[in-house]
Amino acid sequence: MTRKANIYDVAKLAGVSHQTVSRVLNNHSSLKPATRERVEKAIAELHYRPNQAARQLVTSQSNIIGILIAGTELFGPWAILNAMKREARVAGYSIISVSISSDSPESWHEGIDQLHKLDIDGVICINLNHQIIKEVEKSLSSATIVIVDTEASKKFDTVNIENLNGGVMATEHLISLGHKKIVHVTGPSDGYEGQQRRFGYEKAMQKAKLKADVIEGDWSLETGYRIGNEIAARKTLPTAIFTGNDHLALGIIKALTENRIRVPQDMSIVGFDDIPEASYVSPALTSIRQDFDQLGNLAIGRMLIQLKTPTKHKAFTVPAELVVRESTQKLKVGK
Amino acid sequence: MTRKANIYDVAKLAGVSHQTVSRVLNNHSSLKPATRERVEKAIAELHYRPNQAARQLVTSQSNIIGILIAGTELFGPWAILNAMKREARVAGYSIISVSISSDSPESWHEGIDQLHKLDIDGVICINLNHQIIKEVEKSLSSATIVIVDTEASKKFDTVNIENLNGGVMATEHLISLGHKKIVHVTGPSDGYEGQQRRFGYEKAMQKAKLKADVIEGDWSLETGYRIGNEIAARKTLPTAIFTGNDHLALGIIKALTENRIRVPQDMSIVGFDDIPEASYVSPALTSIRQDFDQLGNLAIGRMLIQLKTPTKHKAFTVPAELVVRESTQKLKVGK
DNA sequence: TAATCTCGTGTTAGCGCTCTCATTGGGAGC
DNA sequence: GCTCCCAATGAGAGCGCTAACACGAGATTA
């Protein structure tokens, strides 16, 4: 294992000063093309790679973007994360993602501390509540902050899926099929996304002069299953359900099926997220698709812009889309 | 935003030399308790945090473990990743994961380059082929390497799920239910895991003196669906299918159902992975469960050990487990 | 033609830390 | 009481890089 080449080795081989090499690395403007070429050749020959730590020490810039995220066990956050990684890499940034649990302040501190140590340039907060964001703001004061999946704020750039509108779309889809007794099963009550979807549902119901019927849930399959059984046990059944995410829908369908309530014949169901499995389960799930790629790209894009030249903070949204499959159908007359 | 405190500020406040502060930070042994206390008080007062970059520059130790992984879009790798992050954090290491695509050498280089820049202490290679690992070995020569989901090697520590045995278990389960015409749909042919599962299948079939019947696939739902249709079109149907992963199984079930072939009445199906959705689809999927947490912990554990005191390389395995649900049943006599 | 300005490059000084070596002031050993 | 040693601390160098300034040579201006 030979010693790694440094900037002086390159300089010597190319017959220039180390500073000229540095200029090549940071592609400075005033450089003779011939010199640049010579240096580049030397770099290639020595397999030289600039030492990030040294660079960081002098520029106090780490080229690392931290991501603080609640609940990576879920499809949504995880899809966003992947998109962000791709996008950041193109711009020469690395991503460190730290998942924390919203209900353990200790885990926040740990996560924030980890990012602090790495001297990250920016943090993207995904799906965090205000309290945590405040903490981030305080502890990572020198980092640029971008917020995803949280209420818009004047202090940061925010990027969101059209959660509310998605809720409206899902609900109106069911209404347009003739359903009147429509239940909504929410995500966790302390989350922004779930709240917005719920508001969307309520807005659409109100507009159609229908009575809202909300059951509080979370994002899990298990809870969906449990609630599905609860619904099946009702004296008068609803004819349609709109769930906060696809996992809830899957759990509910399972429970309903076990109770001999057929989907979609007896009950129409709309999910949210459009997970990859959605079109392969039986019945294939009608759902609201979120463009996680676009969301991730947008968030990283804003981060890069703010990192380069801080500008006025804005709120961005990414549209949602209704994907109709087999789990919803027209309400049979007489019901 | 005031200047961050450095080691000299602390030293001055505590009335000692910077070197003594450094000793406190690295809790050196020969230090008067009184001095240590004084320094610690100064650290607290100034909110001092050692600068990671400076440290790294001099020690050439980053406390970062890189993870190179093919295909994070899949449940398995992603679950492993999460487990690793948790485990590494406890030991004070950060994780940077880079996903690459096995069939694009350019993406390997990019990924490796990114890790190189960060001066990672170790790399964990998940689900990579030999060619890529060779490349990693060459380019990241100063990093400790641990291999996951790949053939055992004398040069590195390796950690694997019992893929072969899982394949045997799945197949024997079907055989024990009376099935004789059992098809195996594989994962991608260039992947180690898929190969092992296939070998397991072949081994079990051979032992039972049954004829192997293998269809090559990949890990995707779409491919499962396509192959499901192909199987449905056969003149004589098999009575059972063992698939390389759960997504394939889901796709196949969808196709079979559309062709009026009922699961499990007409066809028993066993998957592999036991994704969270497995017990919530209809019919609930019989599958081979992998303990991804254990796998991740083990890999990180080995990495930490090798990082601390390089020892002889060993191969480790994590057991797989058959989880029987609804998608398999006894072969009806007369078939 | 002298004064000024550019371009392309070299020189020097740190960034904040740890390493190595030097230094001091007692206590043990004789 | 003297050497010797060791525990406890300090001083200085240097990790690899970039920023700021310096400098010479040719081009441009007055």
UniProtKB/TrEMBL annotation, chains A, B:
Residue span(s) of domain HTH lacI-type: 5-59
CDD domains, sorted: HTH_LacI, PBP1_LacI
Keyword Transmembrane helix belongs to the record: no
InterPro entries for this protein: HTH_LacI, LacI/GalR-like_sensor, Lambda_DNA-bd_dom_sf, Peripla_BP_I
Single GO molecular function: transcription cis-regulatory region binding
UniProt keyword list: DNA-binding, Transcription, Transcription regulation
Classification via SMART domains: HTH_LACI (SM00354)
Protein name in UniProt: Unannotated protein
Organism, scientific name: freshwater metagenome
